[in-house]
Amino acid sequence: MHYVRLIHVKVPQDQMAKAEKIWREDCAPLMKEAPGCVAEELLKCLDAPGEYISYSEWETEEAIETYRKSAAHDEIQRHSRALQGAQATVKRYEVIP
Q1: Which of 7, 24, 40, 67 has the smallest count of CB within 10 Å of its CB?
Q2: Is there a contact between 6 and 40 (Cβ–Cβ < 8 Å)?
């Protein structure tokens, strides 16, 4: 069974290109290297410009918690804070077999 972590992000439209660049070049590589991370994707909403979901899939809840306490997580937060006016909500889900 895997666990999914979704980060719902709203970015001002003038920050969209910057947000996508930060995710692609700085955040995604760090997440994908984290122990227990199975997948990491950025979903761009087609109906609401500036809305994204960072989708990550994990082997265990413990892997998520270990990642959240890691230097990689701190680095990702530092990069994310470079986006002015961005708002994020984090939610965890269990995949039902």
Answers
A1: 24
A2: no
